[in-house]
Automatic annotation (TrEMBL):
NCBIfam families: pseudo_Pus10arc (TIGR01213). This is tRNA pseudouridine synthase Pus10. Belongs to the pseudouridine synthase Pus10 family. Residues 113-287 form the Pus10 N-terminal eukaryotes domain. It comes from Callaeas wilsoni. Keywords: Coiled coil, Cytoplasm, Isomerase, Metal-binding, Mitochondrion, Nucleus, tRNA processing, Zinc. Its EC number is 5.4.99.25.
Length: 533
């Protein structure tokens, strides 16, 4: 790290005298040592006091050099002050005496920091860390690492700017050059301090790529209105948003601070910022696990079961659905907050899905339990199958988010096989339907069916019937086996939907035709992988 040197002395003394905590002092002096920030608050105050007491003009480090990874910076000042900022002979002027600095240290030791509002003070202590860990343990999550996130009050950015301008003004008055180095971000310094303590208490490492997030939301009601002057100075930066309770978001405030002129800022906000009476509040301590994805195939044996809950005008039509029969078991076992169901197409409420079933995937949101063995997944599959005779599930397995994309890839280029029981108004003989077996790659123009027009846009879709095979039953009934392009409306291909599907079975047979039963016999999507029984 770059330890404190003589050029940092006026910054240290100014900030301490105006009520800034020692860790924020280190941030403004661009100290990048993670380990140094972890020193106890009292020790840091003592080190800074000893630094101020030393009036030698040579560089005088506060502590030994420590090697740490490079830190992120937040840019508060663009450009560097040149040689014109030095006094006429280049010497470093006298700074206020150490005695006055000591008084400042003593008084600031008990104050709430005027920059971080106490976040780098009380909220770095062991008691708060234990409070966070108690929340994590009580939530009963499975996790092997964690990522820690912090939400800060937006007015912290305003106070940080004010403190920086104070430092800039003091250095200019002393005739000292002001380097263009950038201060350490408050969030980053806080994580440097808190990560090792959380890791020790939780027994797992901090990992920026972890799916398990521990988050803390800070607020400071006493200073909530300190951002409001920016809305007058930079109204374009504050636009109402539907999902935001306030226009004064952190990003909006930062954008305004980048735009506002220095002299306009100083007209509206004290520099240095005043010391608050109260600490920040930790409004929320939350845990969240990344989503887990479960895939499989389902068979549907009922002709009175929708794929998803059937609700019309707020009224539920049927008591259950494929989605619910599967998800209720997964929700219970994974202890998730909610779920999202998707599948490779869908069947109507009165259509069965047979054969190898229809591929589906369920996203389980914020699950408490995330680790399941292959045997546990088999037992979960069996529990689903034992719970209802309307559906069966196979190949139930954990998958990744990216793997789900394979279920949707080229969905309309995939093929599906159906079996339809068809009725005709006029009598038929075997030879009347035999020609259907010879038709290959029949092109259809299907206008959006009347029955789905309320939820699908009006359009004409071109679809293919790849093959057909007829099975004569009696003078008014036959079964037709079809292999089609995915997305083909089979019912409309049979009865024509008042001429909205052309050609159709009715027009091909030159008689009225209707469909009595429809079964999906196969969905030709090679996903998810087949599992051994």
């Amino acid at each position: 790290m770059s330890s404190l040197t003589e050029k940092d002395r006026p910054i240290v003394q100014l900030l301490l005298s105006t009520g800034t905590c020692p860790r924020c002092v280190l941030r403004f002096c661009c100290v990048g040592s993670q380990t140094l920030y972890r020193h106890p608050h009292k020790d840091l105050m003592k080190d800074l006091q000893e630094f101020l007491e030393n009036n030698q003009e040579k560089e005088d480090p506060v502590c030994v050099d420590e090697v740490d990874p490079p830190c992120k910076r937040i840019r508060l000042e663009h450009g560097a002050e040149g040689a014109d900022d030095l006094n006429h002979n280049g010497a470093i002027p006298q700074v206020p005496s150490a005695d006055s600095g000591n008084a400042a240290v003593e008084s600031s030791a008990v104050k709430v920091c005027n920059v971080c509002l106490g976040i780098l003070q009380e909220f770095c202590e062991a008691d708060f860390v234990k409070k966070v860990c108690q929340k994590v343990h009580s939530a009963d999550y499975q996790f092997t690492s964690f990522v820690f996130s912090v939400s800060l009050p937006p007015q912290l950015s305003v106070r940080e700017r004010a403190a920086w301008l104070g430092v800039k003004r003091e250095m200019r008055n002393l005739g000292l050059p002001l380097a263009k180095d950038d201060i350490v971000q408050l969030k980053e310094a806080y994580k440097w301090i808190i990560h090792p303590q959380l890791s020790e208490e939780l027994g797992v490492p901090a990992d920026g790529k972890s799916l398990f997030e521990v988050s803390v939301v800070f607020a400071h009601r006493e200073t909530d209105e300190e951002c409001h002057f920016l809305a007058t100075a930079c109204p374009d930066c504050f636009k109402p948003a539907k999902n935001k309770q306030s226009v004064f978001t952190r990003m909006a405030v930062i954008k305004a601070l980048e735009k506002i002129k220095e002299e306009d800022f100083l007209k509206h906000f004290p520099c240095p910022p005043s010391s608050p009476k109260n600490l920040c509040d930790a409004l929320e301590i939350q845990c969240n696990n990344g989503a887990v994805f479960v895939a499989g195939r389902y068979n549907k044996y009922s002709r009175n079961l929708p794929q998803t809950p059937w609700i019309i005008d707020g009224e539920r039509k049927l008591e259950s659905s494929v989605e619910e029969l599967i998800s209720e078991h997964l929700m219970a076992e994974f202890k998730a907050d909610s779920f999202n169901f998707s599948s490779s197409g869908r069947e109507d409420v009165d259509v069965r899905t047979l054969g190898n079933g229809r591929p589906f995937a369920i996203e389980l949101v914020n699950p408490r339990r995330i680790r399941f063995t292959a045997d546990e997944m088999k037992r979960l599959q069996q529990a689903i199958n034992d719970s209802s005779d309307k559906i069966q599930v196979r190949d139930l397995q954990l998958v990744t988010r990216s793997a789900i994309g394979r279920m949707k890839e080229g969905e309309e280029e995939k093929t599906k096989t159906y079996s339809a029981l068809i009725w005709t108004d006029r009598a038929i003989q075997r030879e009347d339907i035999a020609f259907l077996d010879d038709i290959k790659e029949l092109k259809l123009d299907q206008k959006t069916p009347l029955r789905v027009l309320h939820r699908r846009p009006l359009a004409v879709r071109c679809r293919l019937i790849h093959t057909m095979k007829s099975e004569y039953i009696d003078e008014h009934h036959f079964r037709l086996h079809l292999k089609t392009q995915a997305g083909t409306y089979i019912k409309e291909f049979v009865h024509g939907d008042f001429g909205r599907t052309k050609p159709n079975i009715g027009s091909l047979l030159n008689r009225t035709a209707d469909i009595l039963e429809l079964d999906v016999e196969s969905v030709d999507v090679d996903w998810p992988p087949t599992l051994a029984d």
